[in-house]
Design goal:
Trfase_1_rSAM/seldom-assoc, single chain, 7-stranded mixed sheet, globular, Nucleotide-diphossugar_trans, Glycosyl transferase, alpha/beta
Length: about 230
């Protein structure tokens, strides 16, 4: 692999503004801490990709965010840009456009902060597909809830194809795949992963990544584990 821009689309983990579907059983502050742990895990994975530049498209205020000091330290050495656009689709397209402008000719691979179980080798393997001779123009990682967890593009400007795709729906992944293929791109699918949206998701993903910050944060919340077991 000869280089890639790893795009992390992130929201500052401010209490009451992130992971609200976890409340209850957890409090807004606890939900924000889980989100911060997941983002830190994601940044670790992104920085572990050889030859990658990590671009974080961020929205929100890190000042009142959970684990703000840890996040500020983790963001050093990354390129941080503000998210722009009216909807999530436009923000995704804009983040890839920023990647194209900062690293012309390099592919982009975007992830969010909802799949902290991913790791550097998984991301590196996905990025390598975009460099493979005769390989795909795009890779898409489906999520178990019908969305997607990763979007990689040989030409980041092609993210404009998905700017109008409705997000947070059970068919978002299917619609995204259709939009890419309708634009003439050859698309390969990555392994399916589970997003952290609900209490059950958080417990399941923590079990899949037992050494992650998310797993430690989940283990510190007996109420979360009790509700899921019931």
């Amino acid at each position: 692999m000869s280089g890639v821009t790893l795009v992390v689309l992130a929201k500052a983990p401010e209490p009451g503004r992130v992971k609200t579907r976890l409340c209850p059983p957890v409090t807004p502050g606890q939900a924000a801490d889980l989100a911060a742990a997941a983002l830190l895990d994601t940044l670790d994975a992104a920085r572990a990709v050889p030859g990658a530049t990590v671009l974080v498209a961020l929205t929100g205020d890190l000042g009142p965010a959970a684990r703000s000091g840890e996040l500020a330290a983790a963001l050093r050495g990354t390129v941080v840009v503000a998210q722009r656009g009216d909807g999530l689709g436009e923000r995704i397209a804009a983040a890839h456009a920023d990647a194209a402008a900062r690293a012309p000719g390099l592919p982009s691979l975007q992830v969010g902060m909802d799949t902290p179980q991913l790791d550097g080798p998984l991301l590196a393997a996905a990025a390598a597909r975009l460099h493979r001779e005769g390989g795909p123009d795009a890779v898409l990682g489906p999520a178990s809830d019908g969305g997607w967890w990763a979007l990689g593009l040989r030409d980041p400007r092609h993210a404009a194809l998905v700017a109008g795709v409705p997000t947070s729906r059970a068919d978002t992944g299917e619609r995204t795949l259709h939009a890419l293929r309708a634009g003439g791109l050859r698309v390969e699918l990555l392994a399916e992963l589970r997003d952290v949206d609900t209490a059950a998701d958080a417990v399941a993903v923590a079990a899949a990544a037992p050494h992650s910050r998310l797993a430690a944060a989940v283990a510190a919340l007996p109420s979360l584990n009790t509700v899921v077991r019931c």
